[in-house]
């Protein structure tokens, strides 16, 4: 988000190497090899990639249950910011864009 010409980051990377992401991956029986889940997947949050998700969740599992019980979770990071007249624009893009571009 650009506010009066200045960058305000609204998200952070969710890479398998991040301590909180790696902890979940390991707890669910996965490994982080060369920054990848089980040496294959370079991200730790995704809507698909069902082979990295628990096959039989509890019937009444809450959304936060899924955040903690998948090697790769679809649980989103949500950031709330006021949309004021100082906000010039917001960029919404796939995480792959930020692998080759800086937020600035």
Secondary structure layout plus pairing:
Blueprint: E1 2-3, E2 6-7, H1 19-27, E3 32-33, E4 36-37, H2 63-68, E5 87-89, H3 97-100
Antiparallel strand pairs: 1-2, 1-5, 3-4
Write structural notes for this entry.
By secondary structure, the chain is an alpha+beta fold. The protein is 18% helix and 11% strand. The protein contains 3 helices and 5 strands; from the N terminus they run ββαββαβα. It has helices at residues 19-27, 63-68, 97-100, and strands at 2-3, 6-7, 32-33, 36-37, 87-89. The strands form 2 sheets. A 3-stranded antiparallel sheet has the order 2-1-5, with no helix packed on it. The radius of gyration is 16 Å and the shape is globular. The protein starts with a strand and ends with a helix. The mean pLDDT is 89.
Task: Give a short overview.
With 104 residues, the chain is of the alpha+beta class. Helices cover 18% and strands 11% of the residues. The chain has helices at 19-27, 63-68, 97-100; strands at 2-3, 6-7, 32-33, 36-37, 87-89.
């Amino acid at each position: 988000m650009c506010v009066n010409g200045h960058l305000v980051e609204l998200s952070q990377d969710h890479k398998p190497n991040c301590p909180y992401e790696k902890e979940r991956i390991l707890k669910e029986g996965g490994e982080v090899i060369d920054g990848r889940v089980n040496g294959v997947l370079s991200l730790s949050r995704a809507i698909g990639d069902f082979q990295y998700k628990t096959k039989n969740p509890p019937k009444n599992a809450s959304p936060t249950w899924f955040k903690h019980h998948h090697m790769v979770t679809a649980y989103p990071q949500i950031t709330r910011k006021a949309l004021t007249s100082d906000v010039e624009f917001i960029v919404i893009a796939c995480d792959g864009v930020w692998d080759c571009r800086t937020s600035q």
